[in-house]
Design goal:
Length: 192
């Protein structure tokens, strides 16, 4: 039984991301220990105004998010593509929680930090309004590069898969139902 954390990165109250995250969590719950977080429900200051130059106390919701990340063996991030990458509130949550001492640690004399979240895996489920092929190969797949390389790998989390659904804007109910079925398949085959 794997400890799975499903993160819905979409700040909207009603969205395809919410449906996909709910579907994943519901199916995985039958085989795994599952927790779900909706970024929209978290109350915190989004901006890291002083960068890492001064300590900014974490709000209770961010402390809880850090505890769930530490608990998890497998993270599932369900995010829309907004302006090429993740929504601002999710970016703020990453800025505020993936901190030195929690996610990584600088070592004097070394050019790369110690990865403090090793031993975890992740998968990305991405929704977008452009065709996935266009986004990935013409626009450069910014969300994947950002999350996989500069957040997850940097902190020691190994991304095992990435799934794209789009274009959402023109998807009919049959297409959306097919996407929900695909997410159920993913939840039935967690690779950690």
């Amino acid at each position: 039984m794997t400890k799975v954390l499903v993160i819905n990165a979409n700040p909207k109250a009603s969205s395809l991301c919410q449906s996909l995250a709910d579907q994943y969590a519901a199916v995985a719950t039958g085989q795994h220990d599952v927790e779900q977080i909706n970024i929209r429900d978290l109350d915190f200051k989004v901006s890291l105004d002083e960068g890492y130059d001064s300590v900014m106390p974490l709000e209770p919701d961010l402390v809880a998010l850090q505890k769930k990340i530490q608990w998890a063996e497998h993270l599932v991030i369900v995010s829309p593509v907004w302006w090429g990458t993740i929504p601002a509130k999710f970016k703020g949550a990453l800025d505020r929680t993936f901190l030195p001492g929690f996610a990584f640690k600088y070592i004097e004399g070394k050019s790369t930090p110690e990865k403090l979240l090793k031993g975890r895996t992740s998968e990305l489920i991405i929704t977008l309004d452009s065709p996935p092929f266009w986004y990935r190969y013409i626009q450069g797949d910014v969300i994947y590069k950002h999350l996989k390389h500069t957040v997850l790998s940097f902190t020691g989390i190994k991304n095992t898969s990435s799934t794209y659904f789009g274009p959402v804007i023109s998807a009919d109910p049959n297409k959306r139902e097919a996407w929900l079925k695909k997410v159920a398949q993913l939840a039935n085959h967690i690779r950690s």
